[in-house]
Specification:
homodimer; 79 residues; alpha+beta; Mth169, Chain: A; 3-stranded antiparallel beta sheet; 35% helix; 37% strand; cytoplasm (chains A, B); ATP-binding (chains A, B)
């Protein structure tokens, strides 16, 4: 079983990395980009075929390590 | 117009960051995780409402800055 976890900054949290990318794109001459926010994505392979067990593992992984829930949101998609 | 760009390592490219996360999850006692690969996600707001122009800008952004196409794949989703 495979899953994709997407971790993004919450609204209102400053994103200097995104701002830097925005500036870099402007200096590279890429037009039409209004704003950029960067997040992380984790492609996870699970050892179990049981969906609810997989979801529990992924939730634990997100809460404990992958996302800082004070400033970040996470979304889990099982594929 | 908004877009999400997902950049992931190509198959076969070593991912020490993913390996480290895998190890950390094991030591934290999270079971059932077989492997982890990390990628990046960019949430981009575009200044244009024209779809083909947006796609051209995003392609240029990916090729020039967001992805290293030698070792990474990227996927653009307009939302």
């Amino acid at each position: 079983m495979k899953a994709r976890v997407t971790v993004t900054l919450k609204n209102g949290v400053l994103d200097p990395q995104g701002k830097a990318i925005e500036g870099a794109l402007k200096s590279l001459g890429v037009d039409g980009i209004a704003s950029v926010r960067q997040g992380k994505v984790f492609d996870i392979e699970l050892g179990t075929a049981d969906k609810s067990q997989a979801e529990a593992s992924l939730k634990a992984a997100c809460e404990k390590l992958l996302a800082n829930t004070v400033i970040e949101n996470y979304r889990v998609e099982l594929t």
